[in-house]
Amino acid sequence: MDILASVRKTGWMLEQGSSRERLARILKAAFAEGLLSEETLSYRLGLLFGPRLIEPRGVVGDLTLRTHRPGVGLASLASVVAAVGARVARIIGRGRSESGPLVLALDWSGSPGDLIIGRGPGCDIALGDETVSRRHARLVFRDGGWIVQDLESTNGVTVNGAKVGRCQLRPGDRLRLGLQLIEVD
Fold first, then answer.
1. CA-derived radius of gyration, the chain
2. Residue 151: what are its φ and ψ, rounded to 5°?
3. CA distance 159 to 173
4. Strand order in 53-54's β-sheet?
5. pLDDT digit string, tens, across residues 126-152
6. Is the pLDDT of residue 182 over 90?
7. Could you tell me whether strands 157-159 and 174-177 are parallel, antiparallel, or unpaired per DSSP bridges?
């Protein structure tokens, strides 16, 4: 049973591939501003659209776009307070640096039947986080959609903050395996 069905009826859902498209727009803007060479843009677009699992920070994390001149006053103070708060949260959060979610680029046409996610070497999607079990979860494509199934992992699987045993996925869902956060695209 999809425990998040009532939430999903609201109509809010990302389009398939929208996370990758957003990252591609950042890369194109950085190229337009002269931050990237044509060769580097091509390489990073290959990183973005090639593998199934994408680490956004590795693709666009070093880019800072200058869209407007920062204001002085209350807005600047608020951004400083937010930055300090984020730093404190990282320090408190078990010494782990929160780098944002990985992006899982799924094929919604259904070409692969099922995929295993885990820390083990034989997994289709291998994660390096020690809180992820060797064989943590299975992704199955059925009836035009992806279903995540917990494989009796030690730390469980959550979808959008709710612990699940089996749940249908939609683009934009946030999947947590152990402490590893993954955004479905």
1. 18
2. -100, 50
3. 7
4. 53-54, 102-104, 180-184, 174-177, 157-159, 162-164
5. 999 999 999 999 999 887 889 999 999
6. yes
7. antiparallel
